[in-house]
DNA sequence: CAATTATGCGAATAATTGCTCACATTCACA
DNA sequence: TGTGAATGTGAGCAATTATTCGCATAATTG
């Protein structure tokens, strides 16, 4: 049960090799979203990418590294999207900012829903990747900053909860085949603003 | 890519065979929570169960069937737990009932957290199992009934959202190693009551 | 008690998969 | 243009895995 290596083997220098790398990643993504992680074998990825296995192994030590790279890519995207939304919301009301950010998060989930879902599942079975951990923290920080900017107490902890709540609702709704994105945005907004407005205290037994 | 069979091959009749079945399921559960689904092989399960592979295959057509059975068991448990909580909450205030149900759901997630998480991931990669689908619907119905009993409009849709929200927050918190269960219960309660209290309307663009 | 049925066994086989390596091709650069 | 570095190839070996099948043991039944 040796931990699989998640870092790429070497970074492509020439354009040709960059294309190879990209093709491998894209092929893996497609297999993943169409058939799930159990169908992801190095030989299949290479074939689908129009590349030989040898080339694949030149850049990735194994399939876990390919998956890890896809995950990092997704998270980097997410952070960028959310940062942009947070910036747009600067000087806006809390409600407007929430709507902007919720819409951004949703859009992110909607670009390649199956891929995002598959990668999330895979991530849980892989050793923790340092950069991925950082990126997740960064996401929470972005949210926390927005909250703090509107004078909300305990911003860090609240940010954690809001991110988790939104993630839960978006995933479930998208998985259930929800098509009404505007409606879903409203439901997310309702959850977020509701949480913010509700009494933090209350007797638990 | 033939769909794996998820139903057990035959039902054990004698006590001896019931024990074999149970041993297989428990062994699979232990491997799953300790090492994840990639480590779950039929031979390993049989060995860990103190049973031969042949016996395993007598009752399960493959490992997917074992996993499916574990999933069904977990869901059946969940429905029972939640029904009990809903019954206990009858004649109580909405807030109290929410607290009871939230606590029940949490307790459920906490008995074998790693197992529950692993099974959820596995479920997403398996063909949809009829009974599992039913059970998930049943869970939402239980919540919807409670909501309707308190005169909440659109109970079905709200139930969907509340279940999703709670699932999201519990999973994230438990995964993050949250130990303060009382505190977590309060946060869940806050999310639920907040959602219920917040304006369902609001302008989305 | 047979005789029938249920249960259990595990070596052996077939299929899959990860991964390497010896060799070919292309590129960068003096 | 030539030479070393970078890149690409894919047959094939090693290891893992799923699954079967002939046979032994235990329970049930009549």
> Which pair of chains has the greatest number of interface residues, and how are they split between the two chains?
A-B, 44 and 44 residues
What does the overall shape of chain A look like? elongated
CATH class of the largest domain in chain A: Mainly Alpha
How many E strands of chain A?
Answer: 0
Give the N-terminus to C-terminus distance of chain A in angstroms: 44 Å
Helicity level of chain A, as a percent range? over 70%
Give the count of helical stretches of chain A: 9
- Integer-rounded radius of gyration of chain A: 19 Å
What would you say the CATH architecture of the largest domain in chain A is? Orthogonal Bundle
Low-confidence stretches of chain A: none
Strand composition percent of chain A: under 5%
Written as H for each helix and E for each strand, in order along the chain, the element string of chain A is HHHHHHHHH
Give your account of this protein's structure.
Two copies of one chain form a homodimer. By secondary structure, the first copy, chain A, is an all-alpha fold. Chain A has two domains: 15-63, Homeodomain-like (Arc Repressor Mutant, subunit A), CATH 1.10.10; 68-197, Tetracycline Repressor, domain 2. Chain A is built from nine helices and no strands. Chain A has helices at 15-35, 42-49, 53-59, 63-89, 94-111, 113-125, 130-149, 155-175, 181-197. The longest helix of chain A has 27 residues, at 63-89. Chain A is elongated. The interface between A and B is large, with 44 and 44 residues. Chain A binds a DNA duplex (30 and 30 nucleotides) through residues 12-14, 16-17, 20, 41-44, 46, 51-55, 57-58, 62-63.
């Amino acid at each position: 049960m040796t931990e699989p290596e998640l870092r790429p083997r070497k970074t492509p220098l020439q354009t040709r090799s960059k294309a190879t790398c990209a093709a491998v990643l894209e092929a893996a993504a497609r297999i993943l979203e169409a058939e799930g992680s159990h169908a992801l074998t190095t030989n299949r990825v290479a074939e689908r990418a129009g590349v030989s296995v040898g080339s694949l192994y030149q850049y990735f030590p194994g399939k876990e590294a390919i998956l890890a790279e896809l995950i990092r890519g997704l998270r980097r995207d997410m952070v960028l999207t959310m940062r942009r939304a947070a910036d747009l919301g600067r000087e806006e009301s809390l409600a407007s900012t929430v709507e902007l950010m919720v819409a951004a998060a949703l859009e992110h989930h909607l670009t390649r829903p199956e891929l995002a879902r598959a990668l999330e599942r895979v991530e849980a079975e892989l050793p923790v990747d340092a950069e991925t951990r950082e990126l997740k923290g960064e996401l929470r920080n972005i949210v926390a900053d927005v909250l703090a900017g509107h004078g909300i107490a305990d911003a860090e902890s609240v940010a954690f909860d809001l991110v988790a709540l939104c993630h839960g609702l978006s995933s479930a709704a998208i998985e259930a085949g929800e098509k009404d994105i505007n409606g879903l945005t409203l439901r997310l907004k309702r959850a977020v603003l509701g949480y913010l407005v509700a009494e933090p205290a209350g007797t638990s037994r």
